[in-house]
Write a structure and sequence with these properties.
Helices cover about 55% and strands about 10% of the residues. It has helices spanning about 5, 15-25, 40-55, 70-75, 105-110, 135-145, 150-165, 165-175, 180, 185-195, 205-215, 220-230, 235-250, 255-270, 270-285, and strands at about 10, 30-35, 60-65, 85-90, 90-100. Strands 1-3-2-4-5 form a five-stranded mixed sheet. A hairpin with a 2-residue loop joins strand 4 and strand 5. The chain is elongated and about 75 Å long.
Length: about 290
């Protein structure tokens, strides 16, 4: 731990809890991190919290509770799983969360409760830098292992697997969800994505499909598969453009496949503006 981190991070136990947390929070908010040495997600979250404590440079203090050695404190806060993080301010429990959040969400949480000291504002997170799917899979698997009674984590894992191109594994996790989560909007969209992904079984790679379409713009089969690949590989607008091109030039190809693809694609997207724009373009070609 660096000197900058040590200045703002301390261990909490029953002996110093009242003085270092309750009383100290009257002047400086205290973020309490409940963790344990054996907890995998804690090893991800802890260093990020320490980094942010150093960046905020005294706007809050980070207190760490080893739950194995301080079960009474964990029980007092109602901690049911770790990691659990709670914000104490003015001697009162103000807010909290469970699980290892990505750094962007940690910053958002802090911004709701802590004002950076003048001249020491924390660095803004880099724009357009979401958690890598492989990192998300690893984090979620660790969280599930530590707390198997949170089925929402399994839905998050299914979504991360799909983003990482592991459709079969994503479907397995999706099929294992309890009934209340199987109808969640994200689960419904994932099911639609999986239906589209089946069209890619044995299909050529993205580069080959691009080459085929460039060589023959009327190769509707290649254009159709290209659209599906683009849609599922994080370029949905480009994928929708492929389906619209088929609809415009070969509406009846493969029993109206382009229209069916567009409708299926709309069901997978969580972007109302994008869907609305392409629905209008589809309607202008059909009517």
């Amino acid at each position: 731990m660096t000197d900058a981190v040590q200045a703002h991070v301390f261990d909490i136990d029953t002996a110093n809890f009242e003085t270092e947390v309750l009383r100290a929070s009257m002047t400086t908010p205290v973020l309490v991190d409940f963790w344990a040495p054996w907890c995998g997600p804690c090893k991800t979250l802890g260093p990020m919290l320490e980094k942010l404590a150093a960046e905020y440079n005294g706007a809050f203090r980070l207190g760490k509770v080893d739950v194995d050695n301080n079960q009474e404190l964990a029980a007092m806060f109602g901690v049911r799983s770790i990691p659990t993080v709670m914000m104490v301010k003015d001697g009162q429990l103000l807010d909290g969360f469970a699980g290892a959040l990505p750094e962007g969400q940690l910053r958002e949480f802090l911004s709701r409760h802590v004002q950076p000291l003048e001249g020491d504002a924390p660095a803004e997170p880099e724009a357009d830098a979401p958690e890598d799917p492989a990192q998300a899979i690893n984090r979620l698997q660790q969280e599930i292992a530590a707390d198997a009674d949170r089925p929402e984590l399994k839905l998050d894992l299914a979504l991360a697997l799909m983003r990482n191109g592991q459709a079969e594994a994503a479907e397995s996790e999706l099929n294992a969800l309890p009934a209340n989560l199987a109808t969640d909007a994200r689960a419904v969209r994932l099911r639609s994505q999986l239906d589209l992904a089946r069209a890619l079984e044995g299909a050529p790679a993205l580069a080959e499909l691009r080459q085929r379409v460039q060589a023959d713009p009327a190769d509707w089969a290649a254009r159709d598969l290209l659209g599906v690949r683009l849609l599922l590989e994080d370029d949905p607008a480009a994928g929708l453009d492929q389906f619209l091109a088929i609809l415009e030039k070969a509406r009846d190809w493969s029993d109206g496949a382009a229209k069916k693809r567009l409708l299926a694609a709309f069901a997978t997207l969580d972007d109302a503006e994008l869907v609305g724009r392409y629905r209008r373009r589809m309607a202008s070609l059909l009517f």
